[in-house]
Structures are given as C-alpha cells and as structure tokens.
Amino acid sequence: MTDAPAYPGQPLSEVLTPALIVDLDALDHNLARMARLAKEAGVRLRPHGKMHKSADLARLQMAHGAVGLCCQKVSEAEAFARAGVTDLLVTNEVRGAARIARLTALAATGAHVGVCVDDPANVPELSSAITAAGATLDVYVERDIGQGRCGVTSTADVVTLARAIDAAPGLSFAGLQAYHGNAQHLPTHAERSAAIDAALPLVAEAVSALRDICLPPPQVTGAGSGTFPAEAASGLYTELQCGSYAVLDVDYARLLDANDSRYDATWRHAVFVLTEVMSVTRPGLAVLDAGHKAHAIDSGLPVIADRPDLRVTGASDEHTTVDDPASTLAVGDRLRLIPGHCDPTFNLHDWIVACRGDTVAELWPVTARGCQW
Ligand code: PLP
Ligand code: MN
Fold it and tell me: GO molecular function: any one (predicted)?
C-alpha cells in the first residue's frame, strides 16, 4: 500500500479526489513557449521553483533550457538539491546563523548556490560561514524597484554592498536582483509595462554605477509571469525568474488573456484540482469534495474548467459550493477546478498527478512541500 493517490496508466476517472492534476501537454506547451521567448530575447530563464516545489517539473524546465531554479527558502533549496536539482538561487535574504549554516553546508555539497543581500551586516556573516564550509557562494545585491519589500533603496547602497561582497572571502559578486512583485498582478498589460518602465531607470543607474567601480553585474535577475516581456526587452536584465507561467491560475489567465498578442494569447491552463460532486441536497446547489485545503483561495475562488456556465460560490476547509441553477450536476460527477492561485495550491498537496489526456502518466512528489525556513 502506498500513499500515492494514483498510478501510471490509471484512467483519470478512477483517481481518488481531490487530486492535484497537471496536464502534461499544456505544461509542455507553456515550458516550450517561455523557453522560446527567453531565447528570442537573449536572456536566461531561471524559473521560480517556489511555485511548483517539484523536482520533476524543475527537470522538465531544465530540459527546455532553464539554467537552474529559483527558490525562496533555504529548506526549499535543500529539498531540490536532495532530489538532484543543484543549480539554485535563493531569491531572498538569508539571515540568522542557523539558516546561514544550512545554506553554506548546501554549497559545500557541490551545489551551485546563490543568495541575495540587502544589508552590509549580512556580508561578513555569509563570508565567514562559507569560508568555514570550504565552499563559495554567489551573492546578488537586491535592489528594491517598487515592491517595498526586501532590497536596498539607493544606488549608493548597491555600490557599497557590491564592494563588500567582492572583497569578502568565499563570496562571488554575482550581480543584481531587481524583482517588482507589485507589478505582476496589475490588471492590464499597459499598467504592468508602465510599472516596469518606471522601475528600469533604477536598474540602469545601479548597473552603470557598478560598471563605474569596475564591478559590472554578471547577471541582472528578476521578472515574473505578469511583466517579463518588459524586463526581457529592457536590455538590462539577463535572467528571468518567472514561475506561474508554467501552469497559470485564475488570476494569471485573466491577466495574460489577450492583452499582448505576442506574449499572452496562448498560454494554457496546466494545473487543476480534480474534484467530485459529493452532495446535492437542494435544487441549484452542488457541493464538491475539495475545499481550500485543496485549492488556495487567497487570490479568489477557483473557476470550473469546461463548465463556464457554473459558478463557484464559496469554499470552506473541505467543501466547495457551486451555483448550478438548472441542477445539472449529480453526486459522483467530476469537475476540474482551475485554482485561484497556483503557488499555494501546489503546497497543499503531497503528490502531483501528471496526465496525458485522460490517463495518468506519472506521479510526482511535491518535493519541497511545506518547506518554511
Ligand atoms: N521572483 C521572485 C523573487 C518572486 O517572489 C516571485 C513570485 O512571487 C517570482 C519571481 C515569480 O513570479 P510569478 O509566479 O509571478 O511568475
Ligand atoms: Mn503567486
């Protein structure tokens, strides 16, 4: 007996629900498309692994030419490395001796590890730990370009940090991270491009100041699925960190839908939560067996794929309610939910059921599920 919810060759109709389904044809399409767009723009692609947390999916992205993977947490990086994905950029600051010790120990295993800094005090902490571990770390200066989260807020601070990194034993100055999280979910393509256009002078100023001190940034990394066309075309960024493009979700489908015919029109939904109708006690209401422990609702409720006439009206822990005015649904009917937000949805599941058409092709563990630190 195994805890896996399905087996290769099994018809999808027999998979126990709720289950996290990835449509491999749609996934391949999205991975190939982003790989082609990055190549055409002359930039590298380092997709964000925090989205899917799956080493199997990461390997597919690398097969499509990704240079490595982004993670947000040290424990995520450890999980990916254990599963054989070993070129990892932690797109985040790592603070505290215990976390830094784990990061440097990971680099000492031979993994290629990068990390961001936004505080000069972090530089000697990383340097002494990585020296003691007998390894090297790639270190990026994080520049805040409008998100108001991590990252230094002036060119002078970028220069100070780059100098400190360059002078610190065991640390290699790897460049700049400039990620504009707030811009990703602005409603129109024009607003998203404008937000990046407003931020680009900050990146340009940092790059030019670094050139002036003979520390040109080897990489300028950032961008998400909502804005990457702007960063890719900027002539400044060398690497894209997009995550959600691989599978989409309700929010990203709405954002990317036909706003920009070159970049947006043909992404495909690749992730679904397969669910079953479990109760129809009154006319016009159907209750599904997947609640928000199976699909994340922080960005809004899911949409029902293939039945746009039906509307999800609410979700509790283990149930989702559907408005079905003509009472078309019966107990046992199966529906695929498009999650409101893909990243936290993957983190809710132990397994990804990877399908070709209506048949289970592979079972993938959610390798870095629950990795919090
Ligand atoms: N880079 C960083 C630093 C992020 O925090 C994220 C997501 O929040 C991404 C890239 C990927 O963004 P998206 O899933 O919107 O493509
Ligand atoms: Mn997200």
Answer: D-serine ammonia-lyase activity
Indicate which ligand has the atom closest to the C-alpha of 246.
Answer: 1
Q: Are residues 113 and 60 in the same domain?
A: yes
Residue 137 near residue 103 (C-beta atoms within 8 A): yes
Please check the confidence at residue 243 and state whether its pLDDT lies above 60: yes
Domain of 150, CATH number, reads: 3.20.20.10
CA–CA separation, 357 vs 81, rounded Å? 31
In-domain check, residue 7:
no
CATH of the domain at 342: 2.40.37.20
Atom of ligand 1 nearest to the CA of 252: 15
Ligand 1 lining (C-beta closer than 6 Å): 48, 51, 70, 91, 179, 181, 184, 224-226, 241-245
Looking at residue 224, what is its pLDDT?
97
Secondary structure letter of residue 362 according to DSSP: E
232 and 324 assigned to the same domain:
no
CA of 142 to the centre of ligand 1 (A): 14
Q: What is the ipTM of this complex?
A: 0.99
CA distance 63 to 45: 12
Q: Which is the closest atom of ligand 1 to the Cα of 92?
A: 3
172 and 318 in a single domain? The answer is no
Mean pLDDT of 99-107: 98
Task: Report the candidate in 282, 277, 248, 280 with the shortest Cα–Cα distance to residue 265.
Answer: 248
Q: Which ligand is nearest to the CA of 89?
A: 1
Q: Tokens for 144?
A: 């805040």
Residue of 218 and 187 predicted with greater confidence: 218
Residue 259 is assigned to a structural domain of this protein: no
Look up tokens 């690398």; give the residue: 62
122 located within any domain? yes
Instruction: Give the position, in ligand 1's atom list, of the atom nearest the Cα of 184.
Output: 15
For the segment 346-368, the average pLDDT, to the nearest whole number, is: 98
Give first-to-last CA distance, the chain, whole Å.
Answer: 32
Which range marks the domain in which residue 326 is found?
12-19+265-365
Structural domain count of the chain: 2
pLDDT tens-digit readout, 130-139: 999 999 999 9
Residue 131 Cα, ligand 2 centroid: separation in angstroms? 35
Residues 153 and 282 both lie in one domain? no
- pLDDT value at residue 306: 86
